[in-house]
Design goal:
single chain; about 200 residues; mainly beta; eight-stranded antiparallel beta barrel; 1 helix; elongated
């Protein structure tokens, strides 16, 4: 957890060089991946220039459905970075855009299970700890509605690749895996504009 917090703070310090640019908005987004019973929730600060914009901020994982027993429902897991290109001026009532997204996460799960011991011919406790280091790269297209001067709502659909480096440790074994999954995503965003 400390490493994630430090990584997020470091990310904000990296964008400090943009002091000549003001933060244009505060963004809140909810990203549902098609192969996960979870939402990636991110809060971010956003910078705009011409018809482009980029944002960065911490990412949280909200889990629901059948999950490994000891996973917290909502937890800080990493950070999210996004770049957007708009087809119209940012002051238009509605705007089509495409974006490129990068999300890095570290997710830890713990499960208490049992394993059959051939020596005692019975089941014995077996605690399993699973650590996933995820990198999600995606591209999406969507629409942004400017409800008024301060509030905007966006809806995008995208496709990406999810690279998972998984370390699994139990009372009796330890092994590493590498997974590459294709992911469809549906993301809803709420944007509060800070400009005049």
């Amino acid at each position: 957890m400390k490493k994630i917090v430090l990584a997020v703070l470091a990310s904000f310090s990296i964008i400090g060089y943009a002091s000549s640019q003001e933060i244009s908005s505060i963004d809140l987004s909810f990203n549902k991946l098609d192969k996960e019973d979870a939402l990636i929730i991110s809060t971010a600060v956003r910078f705009d220039f011409n018809n482009h914009g980029w944002s960065i901020g911490p990412a949280f994982l909200y889990s629901f459905g059948d999950q490994i027993e000891e996973r917290e429902a909502l937890k800080l897991t990493g950070f999210a970075l996004s770049y957007e290109n708009f087809l119209h001026g940012k002051t238009a009532k509605w705007n089509m855009f495409h974006s490129f997204d990068f999300v890095a996460q570290r997710i830890k799960d713990v499960q208490d299970s049992q394993i059959f011991d051939t020596n005692s011919n019975s089941f014995v406790p077996n605690k399993i700890e699973q650590i996933d280091k995820n990198i999600l790269l995606g591209a999406s297209a969507g629409v942004l509605w400017n409800l008024n001067e301060k509030l905007s709502i966006s809806q995008t659909i995208g496709i990406g690749a999810n690279v998972i480096f998984r370390n699994t440790t139990s009372d009796f074994d330890q092994f590493d895996d590498l997974f590459l999954n294709q992911q469809w995503s549906l993301k809803t965003g709420i944007r509060y504009n800070l400009g005049n």
